[in-house]
Structure formats: C-alpha cells, structure tokens
C-alpha cells in the first residue's frame, strides 16, 4: 500500500508542478512555492496579506491555501477575484475538512474510527461515519474488480515490513511471520451493511486506508470548494491531485510526472488536467535496504512480500482522486503487463513507467494520451 507521501512544488515560471516522494515519517515536508498573488499559510494568513493590493486587483488571480496534514502537507490553489473574507473562510473550511478525514481514517491515531475498528471484536457490526463507509465501499469495489490485487486488509503485512505506524522492523520478517500476516489478509473478510453504515470482520483483519484516504481527502476539499462557488482550482494532499477549470487566461493546470530515479529529481512527462483526479504511485523513494536487498513499501497481498518487478511508477487519472489513488496502488501490485492489460480492458487512463536495462521506458493507455503535452 502507498504509505509514503508526495509533495508538490513549482518547477518553472509557467506554474508546472512536479511530484516527488517522501518516506513515511511524521516529519512535515517543506517546500518553496512561488505563488501568483496572495500566499495563505498555516493559521495566520493576515501576515502575508496586502489588503490594499487585494482591493485594487483588476482580475482573478491564483491564491494558495497550505499547511500540514496526515504526516504530510496540502497545497490548494484557487482562482478568485480577491476577497479577503472568502479566502479566510476557505482556509478554515479546507482545514476542517482535512482534519475530519484524518480523525476518521488515520491508523496513526489510536482513537480514529479505523483504529477502533481494528481492535474491535470479530463478527460484530461496527458503525462508522458516512465518509468512512464511502471510502471502504469504494475500496471493496476496486478489490472485487481487481480480484484482490487491491486490498485494504493488507495492513498486517504493511506493519510487518515496517511501513506502518510502528516503523521499520528490527529485522526482515521470516516465513513464519509472513504466514501469520497472510492469514489475516483478505478483502472477503470484510462485510458491509449499507443501510446502517456498518462494517464487520470475519477474521482478525487490520484495515489500512493509506492507499485511498488521501485521495478521498482531496475529493472532500474539491467538493467543498465547489459548494463555495469556486470553479477553478488545483487541490493537492500528500501528492494526490484533483483539478477543475483553468488558471487565469484559460491556461490548463500543468503537472509533471517525476522520473523514477533515486539519485536526482527531474521531469519525465508533463500532463495537463482540467477536470479529474490524478494519483501516482512508485517504488523508488519509500523503501529500505537490508543485506543489499531493497524492500519497497508496496506489498503484494498474495505473497506477503514487497513487489518485485520492473514496474516503477504508475500515474492514473479518474473522475475522483480516491479512485485514482487506489488504482495507482493496484497497478503497482499487478506489475507492468497485467496492469496494462487491466487498464486497457477497463478503459482506464493510466501511464506506466518501467525499467528497461539501465534505463526506463513508458507506455500509456489511449485514455491517458489526451493528458500528455510532450
């Protein structure tokens, strides 16, 4: 599952953004972001506000709302005619929405709904919020369609390999530990009751929503912005994206998929997005080495081990960021050939980067090609 976090930072004067990966720690990402107009950050936006400039601005500009969340960060860009009170209201509303999702779905918080469900008795119904139920229902649907290559119950294995709340293990899990984790993994162990928004487990499963919750948080913020009348925005939370509309002067939101190299960060491909969610999952940042062997954070729920194949990065565009988030992880588990075939058969916009000797090659589905700019 995707336990690492992504950050977004501008890479040129044309507001092109580049994804980069950060390991799963609780240290907040710091980035330098060049902004067009007002910069709103943290809990004191007035410190960076020039009210005279706002009152006399002739046209809409890009404003950013940013801060820490979920062990990572969020950056939301909105295109608005300057309005100090509206920007403050949006800042508060965005922060409240993100904190709500974090309180419900974080495995790092022992009092979250997911954490309380994970320690609840088997074969008993556990009522959850509408948000949590929606995320789990979507994840289960993708699990079913993918025949288990996407599985939110892979949490015990994620924890065993050191990519969960407990951190890196003292030693690589042995076969006995893997088997003990595998018997607790299986999306069919999770039951849903849509009438009562309740879930139940028939085995000692451990739900880990890290591969879908950030994407869902993006969707929650996007929906909130639209409810407030914002028609042009770019929302990023921990690297997951959703965009709508355009920047000033009808310019598309341009984003860069990072080259999957550990040594340096560079642009591999540029995409344009005006309506939809975008997520990228990779194996080249969040990993550790033991006795010369590299272990990625993406765990195969069938073998119980980190994936070992040539696929190194997948980018997915879907109507929602939650879908894109989960499917990017699903494809990383499937690997290049199986993943690409699945994407083609299901008409999913997906872009695959895979190792080829000492370099990389890529291929995309027809649905993704319309987003490519170069």
* Strand ordering within the main sheet: 3-4-5-9-10-13-16-17-18
The helix content is 25-40%
User: What is the CATH-assigned architecture of the domain at 113-201?
Assistant: Orthogonal Bundle
Tell me the strand percentage band: 25-35%
Low-confidence stretches: 1-57
N-to-C SSE string, H for helix and E for strand: EEEHEEHHEHHHEEHEEEEEEEEHHEEH
CATH class of the domain at 113-201: Mainly Alpha
User: Outline, from the CA principal axes?
Assistant: globular
| Count of helical stretches | 10
Classified in CATH, the superfamily of the domain at 113-201 is ApbE-like superfamily
Report mean pLDDT, rounded to a whole number. Answer: 83
Strand runs, count: 18
Q: What integer value in Å does the Rg equal?
A: 20 Å
N-to-C CA distance: 30 Å
Class by helix and strand content? alpha+beta
CATH topology of the domain at 113-201: T-fold
Major sheet summary line: 9 strands, mixed
Oligomer type: single chain
TL;DR?
The protein has a domain at 113-201: T-fold (Orthogonal Bundle), CATH 1.10.3980. It is 29% helix and 28% strand. It has helices spanning 51-56, 84-105, 113-118, 130-145, 155-160, 175-182, 213-227, 321-334, 336-345, 366-369; strands at residues 5-10, 16-22, 39-41, 61-69, 72-80, 126-127, 190-193, 198-201, 233-237, 240-244, 253-258, 267-273, 275-282, 287-290, 293-296, 311-318, 349-356, 359-364.
Q: What does it look like?
A:
It is built from ten helices and 18 strands. It has a domain at 113-201: T-fold. It is α+β, with helices and mostly antiparallel strands. The longest helix has 22 residues, at 84-105.
């Amino acid at each position: 599952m995707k336990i690492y976090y992504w950050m977004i930072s501008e890479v040129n004067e044309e507001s092109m953004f580049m994804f980069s990966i950060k390991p799963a720690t609780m240290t907040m990402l710091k980035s330098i972001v060049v902004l067009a107009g007002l910069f709103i950050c943290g809990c004191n936006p007035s410190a960076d506000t020039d009210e005279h400039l706002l009152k006399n601005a002739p046209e809409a500009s890009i404003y950013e709302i940013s801060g820490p969340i979920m062990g990572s960060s969020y950056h939301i860009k909105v295109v608005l005619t300057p309005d100090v009170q509206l920007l403050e209201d949006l800042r508060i509303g965005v922060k409240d929405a993100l904190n709500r999702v974090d309180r419900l779905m974080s495995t790092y918080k022992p009092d979250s709904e997911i954490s309380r469900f994970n320690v609840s008795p088997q074969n008993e119904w556990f009522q959850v919020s509408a948000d949590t139920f929606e995320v789990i229902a979507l994840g289960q649907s993708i699990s079913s369609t993918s025949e288990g290559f996407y599985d939110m119950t892979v949490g015990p294995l994620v924890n065993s390999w050191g990519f969960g709340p407990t951190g890196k293990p003292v030693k690589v899990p042995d076969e006995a530990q893997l088997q003990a984790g595998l018997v607790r993994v299986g999306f069919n162990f999770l039951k849903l009751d849509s009438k009562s928004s309740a879930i139940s487990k028939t085995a000692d499963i451990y739900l880990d929503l890290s591969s879908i919750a950030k994407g869902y948080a993006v969707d929650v913020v996007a929906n909130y912005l639209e409810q407030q009348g914002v028609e042009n925005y770019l929302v990023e939370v921990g690297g997951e994206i959703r965009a709508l509309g355009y920047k000033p002067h009808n310019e598309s939101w341009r984003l860069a998929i990072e080259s999957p190299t550990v040594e340096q960060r560079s642009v591999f491909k540029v995409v344009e997005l005006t309506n939809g969610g975008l997520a990228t999952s990779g194996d080249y940042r969040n990993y550790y080495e033991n006795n010369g062997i590299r272990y990625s954070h993406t765990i195969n729920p069938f073998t119980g081990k980190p994936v070992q194949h040539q696929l190194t990065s997948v980018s997915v565009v879907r109507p929602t960021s939650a879908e894109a988030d989960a499917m990017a992880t699903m494809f990383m588990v499937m690997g290049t050939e199986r993943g690409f075939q699945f994407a083609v058969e299901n008409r999913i916009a997906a872009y695959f980067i895979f190792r080829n000797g000492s370099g990389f090659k890529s291929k995309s589905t027809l649905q993704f090609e319309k987003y490519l700019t170069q």
